[in-house]
């Protein structure tokens, strides 16, 4: 028995159904009950509780597999942080993307001081496995203080206008946050967003850059089977 088959052992539904449901949940702003209705329309009687269990069990594994296949990150990194309120307490979602818009990593933290920036930089270097040539941030002083310790030889540009790429990258997260009626805990936000960024980003079509015929071809190809079709 292969590794992929053993992972789905004793599951009632075929592998393709599990993969399709998890892919739908992370690629579109829908909830578990929406997926239950969509699958019922296709003759698959899966419940929303089952979809939730599949998300918790297989989401991280799918995300880790996609991370292994992504291209190398660029040498120019855009860093930004946004406010996230959970149970009345304000937290900060730190995010870094390269010049192509690929998300390098995210981190949910309760502060945005120098120590929070240091922790975020260390996480980025571990994920990317190399230092950038240039980092672009807003004028938050924590970035400059942490850069002196972690990345002293890297060029640092601070401007509220040069960092639109990172700010635009927050939009899909904000959409899911509204649809989920906010996150409950920092651990929940970190776990969901790490999987969400890894699965959603590769299937996010750039409609303004592609012809309609190519978009239709890509949309037909994109599905649960494409998402995790092979173990590597």
TrEMBL record:
<dbReference type="GO" id="GO:0032196">
    <property type="term" value="P:transposition"/>
</dbReference>
<dbReference type="GO" id="GO:0006310">
    <property type="term" value="P:DNA recombination"/>
</dbReference>
<keyword id="KW-0815">Transposition</keyword>
<keyword id="KW-0238">DNA-binding</keyword>
<feature type="domain" description="DDE">
    <location>
        <begin position="76"/>
        <end position="201"/>
    </location>
</feature>
<dbReference type="InterPro" id="IPR047930">
    <property type="entry name" value="Transpos_IS6"/>
</dbReference>
<protein>
    <submittedName>
        <fullName>IS6 family transposase</fullName>
    </submittedName>
</protein>
<dbReference type="InterPro" id="IPR052183">
    <property type="entry name" value="IS_Transposase"/>
</dbReference>
<dbReference type="GO" id="GO:0003677">
    <property type="term" value="F:DNA binding"/>
</dbReference>
<keyword id="KW-0233">DNA recombination</keyword>
<dbReference type="Pfam" id="PF13610">
    <property type="entry name" value="DDE_Tnp_IS240"/>
</dbReference>
<dbReference type="InterPro" id="IPR032874">
    <property type="entry name" value="DDE_dom"/>
</dbReference>
């Amino acid at each position: 028995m292969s590794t992929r088959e053993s992972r789905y052992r004793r599951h009632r539904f075929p592998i393709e159904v599990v993969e399709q449901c998890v892919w739908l949940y992370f690629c579109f702003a829908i909830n578990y009950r929406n997926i239950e209705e969509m699958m019922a329309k296709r003759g698959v009687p899966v419940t929303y509780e089952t979809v939730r269990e599949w998300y918790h069990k297989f989401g991280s594994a799918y995300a880790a597999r996609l991370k292994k296949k992504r291209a190398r990150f660029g040498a120019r990194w855009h860093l930004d942080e946004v406010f996230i309120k959970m149970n009345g307490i304000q937290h900060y979602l730190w995010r870094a993307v390269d010049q192509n818009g690929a998300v390098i990593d995210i981190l949910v933290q309760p502060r945005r001081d120098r120590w929070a920036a240091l922790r975020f930089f260390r996480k980025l270097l571990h994920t990317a496995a190399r230092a950038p040539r240039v980092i672009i941030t807003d004028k938050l002083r924590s970035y400059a203080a942490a850069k002196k310790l972690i990345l002293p030889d890297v060029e640092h540009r601070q401007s509220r206008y040069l960092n639109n790429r990172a700010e635009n990258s927050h939009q899909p997260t904000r959409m899911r946050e509204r649809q989920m009626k906010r996150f409950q805990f920092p651990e929940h936000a970190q776990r969901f967003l790490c999987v969400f960024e890894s699965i959603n980003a590769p299937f996010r079509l750039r409609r303004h850059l592609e012809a309609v015929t190519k978009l239709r071809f890509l949309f037909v190809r994109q599905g649960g089977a494409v998402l995790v079709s092979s173990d590597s």
